[in-house]
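Lecture 7 notes: from sequence to structure.

We start with a single chain of 307 residues. Read the sequence below before looking at the structure.
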Amino acid sequence: MPYVIAADVPDEPAGLRFRRLLDRPEILQMPGAHLGISALLAKRAGFEALYLSGAAMTATMGLPDLGMITVDEVCFYIRQVSRAAGLPMLVDGDTGYGEALNVMHMVRAFEEAGAGAVHLEDQLLPKKCGHLNDKKLADAHDMAAKVAAARKARKHLYIIARTDAAASEGMDGAVARAKLYLEAGADAIFPEALNTAEMFTEFARRMPGVKLLANMTEFGRTPFFTAAEFQAMGYAMVIWPVSHLRVAARAMEELYAVIRRDGGTHGMVDRMQTRAELYETIGYHAYESLDATLVKTVVPEAMPQRG
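Now the structure, written as tokens:
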């Protein structure tokens, strides 16, 4: 049953539900799911928390991930995912959309929209994906001020401070920044773009007792590790931020090529979710049952053949 109009809409704030998931001993696995339908599919697969990637949101809008998206645009995605699946989600807050007051506005807007957690990064605008070159870092104390502002503004939102310092300041610089951000009020740390198991392990060893987030993005600087491997290295959370979008974009690319080549979609039908499967995913009949004026839809069992 969809959460959006059902009786089982969660009463507990998303931030508290997110924290409770982190209290468990096993690593919290969060696939990227920035659209309502992807959130429903991830929930059906058994995931209990989701991740909303800035790169996925901007790419969906046809834009690069350079810090161009706005708070209101992100809230649009947060609301649809929250309403669709009702799961607590970690949201990419980029650099906070400005300075301390902007960060406070972001925190309040995200929390009201349904977010359970947010991460802030210590880059300067125009920011870049953490796995790209020539990232420009903010002054560590300026970033700490943003973290403190986020902490002051939140009710229950879980605050994760991301540092991109490992690439330019080394492990010592990344650890020093992380400790400063924790002192400013961060609940957890996200060390971005570590590129060996030894780096992940060393960072965790130097941050005892701290909840850490690992990023398992494809085509970046991090080799493929499983959730179990990250947990063994000392990490409490792992995200796969853009994986779902990469798979969907490749499928769309192939579909358009087939239509252009064949003049139709008949060669791709076996790759599609059926109408019945889609309706089951989005709870079509459950919505109908809530409105007595609607007659239950009869789904065609198969496409008619040409005469």
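The beta strands are 28-31, 50-52, 89-92, 117-121, 158-163, 188-191, 211-215, 237-240. Keep this in mind for problem set 3.
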